[in-house]
UniProtKB/TrEMBL annotation:
The keyword Transmembrane helix applies. The chain crosses the membrane at residues 6-35, 47-68, 80-99, 106-126, 146-169, 176-197, 209-231. Its main location: membrane. Keywords: Cell membrane, Membrane, Transmembrane, Transmembrane helix. One of its GO terms (cellular component) is plasma membrane. Belongs to the 4-toluene sulfonate uptake permease (TSUP) (TC 2.A.102) family. It is a multi-pass membrane protein. It comes from the Bacteria. InterPro entries: TM_pro_TauE-like (IPR002781). It is found in: Cell membrane; Membrane. This is Probable membrane transporter protein. PANTHER family: MEMBRANE TRANSPORTER PROTEIN HI_0806-RELATED. It comes from Geotalea uraniireducens (strain Rf4) (Geobacter uraniireducens).
Amino acid sequence: MTVWLMYIALGAFAGVLAGLLGVGGGLVIVPVLTFIFTAQHLPEGHILHLALGTSLASIMFTSISSLRAHHGRGAVDWPVVRRISLGIMVGTFGGSWVAAQLSTRFLKVFFVVFLYYVATQMLLNIKPKPHRQLPGQTAMFGVGGLIGGVSSLVGIGGGSMSVPFLVWCNVAIHRAIGTSAAIGFPIALAGAVGYVVNGLSAPLPPYSLGFVYLPALIGIAAASIATAPFGAKLAHSLPIDKLKKIFALLLIVMGTKMLLSLF
């Protein structure tokens, strides 16, 4: 029962983040699931793979709830979503295959480095100066592939990369957040399928579908669907920059805890 409550609480928090900051919550879901799975004594060699796969699977549900809320406020640029989605899905599926070949230790190091990068970006309020328009279809495919590939390695919906990219291309911040929420769905879909397929032959605990741990998925998805619209509502009324700095400090704490677990 305690574990189920932890899954639900994690999902509720991730849902608010999805709506509020345009991220799928994976930056929180992955490290917290790593701690929970370790306490549950799941197979050590696949703990991070399970956390990554489960995170992406949960973001499928979170992103749908979040994008509906943003769409209702006219904050999703659907032509951009269509242009970038193919590259996103190819990059994410390929990235999930690469991740399946890597050790948990390597993935942990990669994830911690990424956490520190995102936290630094948020703390220092580093934003690319808007000075250009969105590129053509070929370039959008390449950008989508890069965002999808990195997202699959760290189990996120890509908001920490897609929002800055869209802002750089002169997309207004609230519209960039809403569009990022929509982009999170093809990332999560391709990533979840990739982790399921690549984990089918691995020795995993009961209730696993490839590298997706179903009890965690159910708890996180159910709660995040309920809270994502609330986060989207807050995004249009709260000071996003201040909230990002608070979130950045949380990321540093979790990243440091994961780093220490390597020793």
